[in-house]
Protein 1
Amino acid sequence: MAGRGGRTAPKAVAARESQMTEGRIEYLIKEAREAGFDAAGGLDRSTVALYPDVRAACEVNRCGRFGKSWSCPPACGTLEECAARLGKYSAGLIVQTVGRLEDEFDAEGMDAAGRRHAESFRALSERLWGEFPDMLPVGTASCSLCGRCTWPDAPCRNPRGAFAPMEAYGMMVSEICRRNGLDYYHGKGTITFTACYFLE
Ligand code: SF4
């Protein structure tokens, strides 16, 4: 699948046609809003390309989490392994938290929006596990559930709550939003956090 900038997804990525009905998507969007998200929309798996160069950016380690967490590379698996994990899904849900900032240096506002996003993601995960026991949540940032991650010395303390970020899967978040009809940028003075669930 060709993507923006001539990038190419690994051959292992193959998507089934989305089977989710409009009514089902509306129900999931309502659930997302009740969990605290500001925006949500259906996710068609066929719109999701995995880019080796997005994944390679993890190794630059600007966030400082490369090689520090079970949720991040290399522990979350190779791009091919991530692609294989996604192979059985056809549809899901994109969720967003939109924070309002006083100005572009409003670090407190950014942190508050990030915390709200993480709380909503955990809350919606809990609601969805019952209905979609095989779902795959893909988050926004490295897992920070524990003060210090056990990687690589001991197993993850909470594998069900440790979500790899979309970038670790090689996903270009802006592209996925655009292809599924969601805004990636919500205007001046805002910051947006995006995550998704692959459901069925
Ligand atoms: S739950 Fe704890 S051990 Fe598991 S990835 Fe998150 S921080 Fe690491």
Note: The first helix runs from residue 22 to 34.
Protein 2
Amino acid sequence: MNVVLSNAGADHAVMIAGAGPTGLMLAGELALAGVDVAIVEQRVNRDLVGPRARGLHARTIEVFDQRGIADRFLAQGQVAQVAGFAWVRLDISDFPTRHRYGLALLQHQIERILGEWVGEFDVPIYRGRAVSDIAQDETGVDAILVDGHRLRAEYLIGCDGGRSVVRKASRIDFPGWDPTTSSLIAEVEMTEEPEWGIRRDAHGVHSISRSENGGPVQVLVCEPRCDRVGEPTLHDLSAALTAVYGSDYGVHSPASISRFTDAARQAAAYRKGRVLLAGDAAHIHPPIGGQGLQIGVQDAVNLGWKLAQVVKGISPPTLLDTYHSERHPIAALVLRNTMAQLVLLRVDDRVTALRDCVADLLSLDEARQCFAGMMSGLDIRYDLGEGHPLLGRRMPDLDIITADGARRVFTLLHRARPLLLNFGEANRIDITPWADRVEMIDVECDGPWRLPVIGAVAAPDAVLIRPDGYVAWAGEGKRDGLADALTTWFGSGAA
Ligand SMILES: Cc1cc2nc3c(=O)[nH]c(=O)nc-3n(C[C@H](O)[C@H](O)[C@H](O)COP(=O)(O)OP(=O)(O)OC[C@H]3O[C@@H](n4cnc5c(N)ncnc54)[C@H](O)[C@@H]3O)c2cc1C
């Protein structure tokens, strides 16, 4: 979109830096809630440098299903059992979800589908413009662009990736672990026949393959040193191949070369005043297990409705602190599991023995379910206190009967509005003070109420579901705590 920016700034309620998967998802969520949102993106088009995410895990597919767009992804990708831990495959085909699988789909395709969805809301995307600094005051934030222009918004969200300028300019600490390994991933041509397949040796794990459709040669190779900075070159790739394979196989004509390390870091705070961070801007970790894009998209879905309510004056800004308290522990666990997985993949006879022991443990059903729940994102529980097992967990996509006929729960979440589902006698719950923002629906349901990893749970007679699909309150015969939950999550009833 071509927009003329003046030095006075183009005002929006929310400005997002970065149109990667996280920024796009957040823009869609805010636009769905009717918030004036815009994205500023340094890339002039959707092209990505180098291969990145290769698919979606089950919870991310569910999240898209909650917005009615899962079919767009499913139509483009390949359904498969993709969850795993340290290369031990974890089958989720017995999990109680409609999406008992992952989806093989490349990140550029995921971004294209998300971009088309966001385009349906006419969200302005200021392309070819990079944020270089920010200035925050009591009423808003200026995103200062490289060309000197300013864009002002009530809130600025840094979805600008692992090297986030927004995070650095906000002086938010990014503690964690420095890299111990560095790898190059490239798409190239070779004049000589390489050693095809996966190789594990003292340097680490490497692979050389050609995609089925006869595209470029895909190379993954460890570098001898992990302190390289800057953009990787063909010379770097040649040197790494020679160090590992004894030859660079006449590598030439790179379509892409990118570098990733096993550095793991997480923002100390996801919010600083009117600036928030999401996705890789808030957390980086090795790609093992394919979790980065997933948790970025899910950060966006956690933040979107909360920010919308704050911008609209429905909720106080303190609601945004629950974004940090809920999502920071999720990424902390991902950092932990990626570090553990990489250790288990080290080429050392003793570590291989340990990995074999872990694989034995993961063949036990309870352990398999537990780890598969973690890697697929289906086990997430936000700490909303004691209560029914559903509290803080994802609402299952049950088949229900409404006054308008048969529905799925996820269908009722398409508009990203809070829902109170009454499974008991009709018209027995009065939420009049919140009726302008919480939709109450009398429904019938035969269950079964089963949660991934947890198993069967008692059927509640009412559930309050947040727009992100997590249960904020579950009733078991009484209305205790309902008014408090409505106020906590959806603002004062007197507003
Ligand atoms: C080799 C590799 C394999 C991976 N495989 C997987 C996988 O299988 N599954 C998985 O879930 N994840 C995987 N990941 C991680 C995944 O790619 C990231 O977690 C994901 O891209 C994060 O999305 P994001 O939107 O937060 O950040 P990004 O995708 O980094 O997007 C940030 C956006 O911000 C823009 N930007 C940056 N700076 C500025 C600025 N100053 N001003 C304006 N715009 C800016 C960038 O151009 C970009 O468009 C992999 C990563 C790598 C490197």
Note: Residues 399-490 form a domain with the Glutaredoxin fold (CATH 3.40.30.120).
Protein 3
Amino acid sequence: MIDIPAIYQGQMSSLKDIRVSPLSRAYTFSDSVYEVIPYFAGHPLCFSRHIERLASSLQLSHISVDMDVITSELKQLGDELGNQDGYIYFQVSRGVDEIRAHLYADDLEAERFGYAFQTSVSVEPISGMLCEDNRWAHCNIKSTSLLGNVLSMNQARQQGCNEVIMHRAGNMTEAGASNVFYLNHQGIVRTSALTENILPGITRAILLEALTKSNIEVEEGECDIQDFNDAPAIWLTSSTKGMLPLTSLIGTTYFFEKNNLDYLRIKNIFNDAVELHLLAAK
Ligand SMILES: Cc1ncc(COP(=O)(O)O)c(C=O)c1O
């Protein structure tokens, strides 16, 4: 097993040496939230936004924990990456029960766990499958309760796909582990508006803010899945994928026009915005 620097309850060690109780509420109930922060050459992309989203997920889940402690632990993990590309995974559970019980004790100590992993953002386009969004109603919380995502994505894998695009009653929500954008046939960039049905992605925000400064027309709102049939480009955004196009989408007639000039321009705008954010982090 490779040596991955990790932290548990403030104690730095190697991931392989961390032992947790089976009575961790993360284990018994998925009663936990998490964050993933990407690093480029050792610099975090939008560190404070990830902290803010984690604080929001914790607050919406009624888990109380000192954010200064978490920030310091995240920085310790970040230092472990040196000047490499990678990401930090960090998870906070409500705590460890004395015995499994839905109703939690009010004095539980939140359980903090994270690790730093060296890797590069994937650049190979992937294929997707359209499916119903059968997750719970609070997908704006970055909860580790991801059974809906896990089942759908693994069903898609049986069709040779790496991702799903989910919809509720014909309106696109998001992907299994990413937000979704597309160019419609009129050349307008469209993405789902922020509601409780999707995660407020940091990468999504980076792209939207950058596009606002361009003359490219953007609409956040309801996205009819019929639009995919004649969309020249559909792409995913996430901390570990950056901006990644879909080559095909099972359940639609979509195919990716990889030389589409609008798409290529949007990709450049995104890359420049990421560079600027990283410069600000130096
Ligand atoms: C369901 C879901 N939506 C969207 C995203 C993208 O969020 P971000 O850009 O902050 O990584 C993720 C990231 O893991 C996700 O799991």
Note: Residues 36, 174, 177-179, 199, 201-204, 237-239 surround pyridoxal-5'-phosphate (CB under 6 Å).
Protein 4
Amino acid sequence: MAAAKNQAAFLIKAGTPLEVGDAPLPTAGPGELVVKNAAIAINPLDCHMQDVGVFVQQWPAVFGCDVAGKVYEAGPDVQDFKKGDRVIGHAINLVSGRPQDGAFSLYTVIPANKAAILPDAISFTDGVVVPFAIETAVCALSLKEPGVAMPGVSTPALGLPYPSLENPAPSLGKTLVIYGGSSSVGSMTTQLATAAGIHVISVAGAHNFEFSKQCGAAQVFDHKDPSLVEKIVEAVGKSGQAEFVGIFDAIATPETYTHDLAILAQLGGGHLACVHPPPSEVPANVKAGMIFAVNDIATPVWKDYVTPALQAGKIQCLPPPTIVGKGLEFIQECLKKSKAGVSATKLVVEL
Ligand SMILES: NC(=O)c1ccc[n+]([C@@H]2O[C@H](COP(=O)([O-])OP(=O)(O)OC[C@H]3O[C@@H](n4cnc5c(N)ncnc54)[C@H](OP(=O)(O)O)[C@@H]3O)[C@@H](O)[C@H]2O)c1
């Protein structure tokens, strides 16, 4: 059998197109897996990394967060995975800076505690939409104490329970508003929150109401509706739940912050968990924070939940992938499409 050869899509300099070239074949250290990627997915973060080199620690850079494929090598102490296992995983070049930890490669190193077996019935191109979004969702929902997202910005601490495999999950009597219910992060957070027994009211485009309900939202409102704030406040009031937790804002723009703060003002405050730095000034009854989606808080979910939940259909591989092409060369095209904006889909490249 021919020796395995690796290639990666390199960013040589911020603001330039990715260049595909030969890369060293990585090896698995303690607690690591090398995955032979069959599919990778694109996230908006990748566009920022390409444009301005944010989070890049080492040039040329190889980044990307989502992989699906087969285990090529398991680290010496890894018990839960073996060579040949079908897996999905969260690649963490974002924090490590090491090129071998970037998804945009034929072979990628991922931490074994950010991987899960992908059931045979689920294709790699479907499964690859899950990893980064699910870790982000856990960080949005389940941190108990505020940590540091970036200098001067703390993480949110909603302290909500992990998702359950019970169907349906017992109600917690809590309502959470998810702004951006059709986005990758918003839809996965809707799925996990619902699976934790939380009543979700979401905000999405009118054409994505059914999609957001498929993810578990009890009610969905149009982000273009001029009466959005009033409608959300009314829906929370009539939800029949004992507690309003707050808002997870998966869009986090000046416009969404205006709506968030108006909703929170009318509902007596609550959490405001954001995917970007929150508004600089918030009232005393609003606990605002920014998620940072690489966190060991997700380890129990990776270890005990992802595979059985995928198997049982408790996690659906949503939003569905749009497969842009086969080969590392298509990543650049995906980045261009991602910058143009997507709606209720995740851009995916097959390898
Ligand atoms: N801090 C972190 O750790 C972290 C982690 C992951 C992601 N992020 C950030 O989170 C954001 C979302 O990422 P993603 O991958 O989920 O994005 P995405 O799937 O590419 O987002 C596309 C979706 O955004 C929705 N949208 C756009 N404007 C909206 C608005 N005003 N109100 C409601 N929905 C709106 C669109 O909804 P319609 O088509 O229905 O209109 C569309 O479905 C990005 O900015 C990303 O950089 C941060």
Note: The radius of gyration is 20 Å.
